[in-house]
Design goal:
The structure holds 2 protein chains of 2 kinds. Chain A is α/β, with parallel strands linked by helices. The longest helix of chain A is centred in the C-terminal third of the chain and has 18 residues. Helices cover 34% and strands 20% of the residues of chain A. Chain A is globular and about 50 Å long. In chain A, strands 6-7-8-3-9 form a 5-stranded parallel sheet. A 4-stranded antiparallel sheet of chain A has the order 2-1-4-5, with helices on one face. In chain A, helix 6 packs parallel to helix 7. Chain A has 8 helices and 9 strands. By secondary structure, chain B is α+β, with helices and mostly antiparallel strands. In chain B, 53% of the residues lie in helices and 17% in strands. Chain B has 14 helices and 17 strands. In chain B, strands 1, 3, 4, 7, 8, 9, 10, 11, 12, 16 and 17 form an 11-stranded mixed sheet that branches. Chain B has a two-stranded antiparallel sheet with strand order 2-15. In chain B, strands 5-6 form a two-stranded antiparallel ribbon. In chain B, helix 2 packs antiparallel against helix 13, helix 10 runs parallel beside helix 14 and helix 12 runs antiparallel to helix 13. Chain B starts with a helix and ends in a 7-residue tail after the last helix. Classes of the chains: A alpha/beta, B alpha+beta.
Chain lengths: 246, 418
């Protein structure tokens, strides 16, 4: 257990600033396939406020790592601490709550519930982050301004938006609960080059303004210069070369 | 929250959902309909006759006798001679008798020849006697009393003149137009086959058949009323008669006496026992119908859960998004369960509406063709029980897709496969 127990602080995050991500002696294999170690990371840290570019070619265990960081999967051995909180020490339900409040996730594509309106998508995220309504409307408006999404978009059904708009709404949805950590999993790969540049600009700017720790997963190394650190998952993962699908 | 998500999700797949809803609606309709009609038919049958101790007719099955004498379904195989009737009616144990003579009709409604005793002794429902809405019993030869439904449907009023037809068709070719009848009384509605018939005296019945032979009018033979009055209009035979006894204790004694009657083969039966026999016979069919409707319901609910299960595969990304924003697997489970229940509830509402409308239309048809009187569809304890069972079954069968979604959200997490 961390010396500064999370129970001491109301926000669930210890008072002294711990690392955003701290992995120690992590071992992971899927149940039923115990002999195929997918991830073996002796140590990996991401400091708060860092912007990390994580290179993850197919088969490097990228998806598994994301599921572990998000607290959907649990390590077999070792610890994963997010903001000082050891995820394995939490119940499944508590990990879901923790994820809702502290981690924002943007996928490659299909980030929204297609049949809900943009506003309802954001409200749903706020619902799980236990954010209250008035606060939500204000945050949402600010985010929309920064993402250059006009008011007409709000009431539209998510499936009626262009891919570029959807990805921007995805950022707004990921950040609505003001999470400390933003994980973006190849968020630009579905965009054309013009939209991609604009999207990157906004993503970087907004995470800077909000002070988020950004973990950006991509194999497009052209984007690497935007980040403080470039990490190759294949290098930190000693189980590398695993035949596991992404 | 999950209901809202489920609702929008259903709206997004309108056509599939609509088909599943219709399928649930049809099966619920069948199940509720069968139960309602079964219940109502029983009710209607058992209130049709009361206070009659025995019904006597020519030897036949007791069900057949019950059906043609009381429900006016089917026909008598044979008649009873007037002489036998008189002899049996004169028995000291007998309090009263009501002779019945059937065979003629008026625009699809049966005509029954009887005596004034019918209006004094016949009982229906909870021992309720017949009463007149207008006028009174027949007294003259060509007087006719009509049932409430006949008056209503054909728009007859007191003193109207009507012509009876020979046989039972709706459009008979042989009409007793030589002797029209005059309406002297209209009975109050009873909700039994009594409403659907016309009543004339036995003498009147005899009179219109005097100049007929073998169901055909004899040409050139027509009699004036005064001529008829001069003739002996005592019928040669009647179809059946109802018996009221002085003491119920004598019922089986009299029944045996009639059944062993030497001069012609007769049958006496107790209406209550014949009704019980009818239920026993119908219960096989009832149970079969119920079983079939339960199977239909089961299959439509299974179809509903199949539809949802196949949708789960397409909804992997949606589940991944829900998990990413912190939805617990149980939330995903609840969405799918809500979808199943919403479709099922929608189906139930449609079914109840259709049933209410359907019964409104079926009422007249059943009453006119089968003498079965069905009440409006209303929600009672039994219906609530059935509806509860449907909802619970939906929940149970809904476990198939919702548990599948639960497992998917638990294990696949943010990853979309296949």
């Amino acid at each position: 257990m961390h010396s500064n127990s999370p129970r001491n602080s109301p926000s669930g995050v210890p008072a002294t600033i711990p690392d955003a991500v701290r992995i120690n002696g992590l071992h992971f294999s899927y149940p039923g396939k115990v002999h195929t170690v997918v991830l073996a990371i002796p140590e990996w840290r991401v400091a708060r406020g860092d912007r990390v570019f994580l290179k993850g070619p197919s088969g490097s265990g990228k998806s598994t790592l994301l599921n572990l960081l998000a607290g959907i999967l649990v390590a077999n051995k070792g610890t994963i601490e997010i903001l000082g909180q050891n995820l394995s020490a939490l119940s499944a339900r508590a990990r879901d709550r923790f994820r809702a409040a502290h981690i924002g996730i943007v996928f490659q594509q299909f980030n929204l519930i297609p049949y809900l309106s943009v506003l309802d998508n954001i409200r749903l995220a706020a619902h799980f982050g236990k954010k209250d309504r008035t606060d939500l409307d204000l945050t949402a408006r600010q985010l929309f301004d920064m993402l250059e999404l006009d008011n007409t978009v709000i009431t539209k059904k998510a499936s009626d938006l262009s891919v570029g708009q959807q990805q921007r709404v995805a950022i707004a949805r990921a950040l609505v609960n003001a999470p400390e950590i933003l994980i973006a999993d190849e968020p630009t790969s579905a965009l054309d080059s013009d939209t991609r540049d604009a999207f990157m600009q906004m993503l970087l700017e907004i995470s800077k303004t909000q002070g988020n720790t950004l973990i950006f997963v991509s194999h497009d190394t052209a984007l690497a210069p935007h980040f403080h650190h470039v990490v190759n998952l294949a290098e930190i993962n000693q189980a590398g070369g695993s035949q596991h699908v992404c | 929250m999950f209901v809202k998500v489920a609702w929008h999700s259903l709206l997004n797949r309108k056509y599939t959902v609509l088909l599943a809803l219709i399928s649930v609606a049809i099966s619920t309709f069948v199940l509720l309909g069968v139960e309602h009609i079964r219940h109502e038919a029983k009710e209607s049958f058992s209130k049709t006759v009361s206070g009659v101790d025995l019904i006597v007719g020519a030897r036949t099955g007791q069900l057949n006798l019950l059906l043609y004498s009381i429900f006016r379904i089917g026909n008598a195989t044979n008649n009873i001679s007037w002489q036998s009737y008189r002899e049996l009616a004169a028995d000291p144990k007998v309090a009263w008798t009501i002779p019945i003579s059937l065979g003629d009709s008026h625009r699809g409604y049966r005509v029954m020849g009887t005596t004034q005793d019918y209006f004094t002794h016949f009982r229906f429902g909870q021992n309720t006697p017949l009463s007149f809405a207008q006028g009174g019993p027949f007294s003259q030869l060509f007087d006719v009393v009509i049932g409430a439904e006949v008056a209503k449907k054909l728009g007859y009023r007191l003193h109207d003149s009507i012509v009876l037809a020979h046989g039972l068709g709706q459009a008979s070719f042989s009409i007793h137009d030589d002797n029209p009848f005059r309406v002297t009384g209209i009975l109050r509605a009873t909700g039994t086959p009594v409403d659907h018939a016309l009543y004339v005296s036995l003498a009147g019945m005899e009179a219109i058949h005097l100049n007929w032979k073998d169901g055909v009018k004899i040409p050139g033979r027509q009699m004036a009323a005064h001529e008829l009055a001069a003739r002996d209009l005592t019928p040669k035979s009647i179809t059946a008669f109802m018996v009221g006894l002085k003491s119920k204790m004598a019922t089986f004694h009299v029944q045996r006496q009639v059944n062993q009657y030497q001069k012609e083969p007769l049958l006496a039966m107790l209406p209550g026992i014949a009704l019980t026999e009818l239920w026993q016979m119908m219960s096989v069919m009832e149970n079969t119908l119920r079983l079939i409707s339960i199977l239909v319901l089961f299959s439509s609910l299974l179809g509903l859960s199949t539809m949802l299960l196949s949708s789960i595969r397409e909804r992997q990304r949606e589940i991944a998004v829900l998990r990413a924003i912190g939805a617990p697997p149980f939330f995903v489970f609840l969405i799918i369960q809500s979808e199943a229940l919403l479709i099922s509830l929608g189906g139930i509402i449609v079914a109840m509406f259709a049933l209410t409308m359907g019964i409104l239309f079926a009422q007249t048809f059943l009453a006119e063709n089968y003498g079965i009187f069905i009440n409006h569809f209303a929600i009672n304890h039994q219906t609530l029980g059935i509806l509860g069972t449907i909802v619970v079954s939906t929940g149970v069968l809904g476990l198939i897709p919702s548990l599948s979604a639960y497992r998917m959200s638990l294990h696949h997490g943010l990853t979309v496969r296949g």
